[in-house]
Amino acid sequence: MLKSVARPLAALLAAACLTPVAVAQDAGAAVEVAYETDGKFFTADDTPTYSIAEDGTVDWYTFSGFRRYHAECHVCHGPDGEGSSYAPALKDSALNLGYWEFVAIVAGGKQGAGTDANQVMPAFGTNNNVMCYIDDIYAYLLARGTEELPRGRPAKRADKPDSFVEAEDACMG
After folding, report:
1. Which intervals carry biased composition (Basic and acidic residues) (predicted)?
2. Nearest to 92 by CA among 17, 22, 24, 19
């Protein structure tokens, strides 16, 4: 698995078609960080994750995920990943789906019939404002789902790493 924010979209979409590795988490259970690279945190299976210091400082990528989520996702899925009457709580989806299934749904969309109405998640696979930051959005939602990160804008954040700027520039073109 690549460890950069600027994953080429073709590789990302191809990887999303693989059988997802479901690593369900429990709400309230912190995710174990296995390693960090240039301010970005990962689990032992190379899944992006979050880091929150004891003083509440979130890593830059999780903060970026908060910003991108609220720019692109909260209109349907509600503030802070809590869900709405229109779409499910993505903080729960991050816990229940596993990383690759989450990416596949975001990239390819999803349709299903609910008890009240048909449900449609549009595909965001060609939207750089989502896909260039998919790891960040996932880390943010994972932090919300495990209840390690409270609702609202994180009060403290780590500084933006130079590697983030380089990857963002490469992905956004």
Report:
1. 151-163
2. 24
SS (H, E, C) the chain: CCCCCCCCHHHHHHHHCCCCCCCCCCCCCCCCCCEEECCEEECCCCCEECCECCCCEECHHHHHHHHHHHHHCHHHHCHHHCCCCCCCCHHHHHHHHCHHHHHHHHHHCEEEECCCCEEEECCCCCCHHHHCCHHHHHHHHHHHHCCCCCCCCCCEECCCCHHHHHHHHHHHC
> Rounded to the nearest 5°, which phi and psi values hold at 57?
-70, 125
Closest CA to 87 of 124, 126, 114, 108: 114
Q: Per the structure block, which two tokens stand in for 17?
A: 């078609």
Residue 89: pLDDT over 90: no
Identify the DSSP state of 115.
S
pLDDT of residue 113: 64
pLDDT digits (tens, 9 = 90+) for 95-115: 998 899 999 999 999 887 665
- pTM comes to 0.82
Region 9-22+31-172: CATH code: 1.10.760
CA 89 to centroid of chain Cα atoms: 13
Q: Using the predicted structure, report yes or no on whether residue 41 has a pLDDT greater than 70.
A: yes
Q: How confident is the model at residue 29 (pLDDT cuts 50, 70, 90)?
A: low
